[in-house]
Amino acid sequence: QVQLVESGGGLVQAGDSLRLSCEASGRPFNYLNMAWFRQAPGKERGFVAAITWTDGRTGYADSVKGRFTISRDNAKSMVYLQMNSLKPEDTAIYYCALKLSPSASYTYWGQGTQVTVSS
């Protein structure tokens, strides 16, 4: 089994930066893909960014492209989300997620970490 634990959320002002961390624990294996999702109050959960575990390929939602950067540290089993130029609309609970195969969904989830961006 895999456990995911997010950290690094907090309250910041618009334009500030924040780095979220997600630690994966459990039996080691070659992770296929890890991602960040977020859910704002009253809205559905949405995709933010993803990264392949082996080669580091990344993908981003258009809303965060150019501002957010996802990265991973394979040795530490960590994935990060560097968030720059934060906007109030980035306010959400941010979740780390993992999937193990192309046909799988993101079935492993962390508890989430709150990011609040004030005007």
Report on this structure.
With 119 residues, this protein is mostly beta strands. It has no helices and eleven strands. It has strands at 2-7, 10-13, 18-26, 33-39, 46-52, 58-60, 68-73, 78-83, 92-99, 108-109, 113-118. It is globular and about 40 Å long.
Brief write-up:
29% of the residues are buried. It is globular, with a radius of gyration of 14 Å. Helix content is 0%, strand content 54%.
Mean pLDDT: 93
Please state the CA-atom Rg, rounded to the nearest Å. 14 Å
Give the biggest sheet. Answer: 7 strands, mixed
Distance between the termini: 40 Å
Percent helix: under 10%
How many helices? The count is 0
Could you spell the SSE succession in H and E letters? EEEEEEEEEEE
Give start-end ranges of low-pLDDT stretches. Answer: none
Q: What is the approximate shape? A: globular
Proportion of residues in extended strands: over 45%
- Going by helix content, strand content and strand pairing, the class is mainly beta
Count of extended strands: 11
Topology:
Blueprint: E1 2-7, E2 10-13, E3 18-26, E4 33-39, E5 46-52, E6 58-60, E7 68-73, E8 78-83, E9 92-99, E10 108-109, E11 113-118
Parallel strand pairs: 2-11
Antiparallel strand pairs: 1-3, 3-8, 4-5, 4-9, 5-6, 7-8, 9-10, 9-11
Please describe the structure with a list of short key phrases separated by commas or semicolons.
seven-stranded mixed sheet, 119 residues, four-stranded antiparallel sheet, single chain, 0% helix, globular, mainly beta
